[in-house]
Known about the structure:
The protein is an alpha/beta fold.
Amino acid sequence: xxxxxxxxxxxxxxxxxxxxxxxxxxxxxxxxxxxxxxxxxxxxxxxxxxxxxxxxxxxxxxxxxxxxxxxxxxxxxxxxxxxxxxxxxxxxxxxxxxxxxxxxxxxxxxxxxxxxxxxxxxxxxxxxxxxxxxxxxxxxxxxxxxxxxxxxxxxxxxxxxxxxxxxxxxxxxxxxxxxxxxxxxxxxxxxxxxxxxxxxxxxxxxxxxxxxxxxxxxxxxxxxxxxxxxxxxxxxxxxxxxxxxxxxxxxxxxxxxxxxxxxxxxxxxxxxxxxxxxxxxxxxxxxxxxxxxxxxxxx
Length: 299
């Protein structure tokens, strides 16, 4: 399809422990790589529900009666399962983060390597863009997103620089943003710094952390007993949230124990140690280098 090379393809799909007659959900369809692998393992009576809020993804849906495509954010998982009269499913897969297709299209504004409008919307129907965030957010709001989502220690200085720059002229393009932050960009490794800035903006524009929180809470109700939750993360913020939820059943990671000291959680960890791509996969697909795979089973 030439859209997006699926990361940890076999490890994640095998983690679903697919039953031929089962019902599964791919929350991040994208180019369909993971979904196609799931379909290979499903029998003629199996079902796959595939979500993607990016309208471009729908063109990749195969002509297969076993698959239902939902053009919406995965935060609406429970609503759509109810709509299709599905009480619970056997497995849920999510490959979080941005797709190669989105990065490689300059007009989407996801990459600092191209001169483009500051957009960064995964769902083009959304009103909030990176341009809107940079030109309308208060100093406090900018500090919050750079500190929380970019994990940038100089978040306060960055927020001040952006506000000073927008008082002179509106920030509209990726070049405008880079010029506003020019004195903060390290000479030796500009990409690492800019990647964190863009990550912070992308997460805010697409409300990624809110969507992930809403999703994780729903999975407990949406999975059958013995059903698998398989999640691939790409940065420490989302990975921490997924790890906490799988270990404790809550987003804070608070371990609850019974009278006898047994951990009370609706999940059993399938891989206690996080799974990462082998060197040969990273060599073929550099964007896999930060991927972490976690698998848990509904008790």
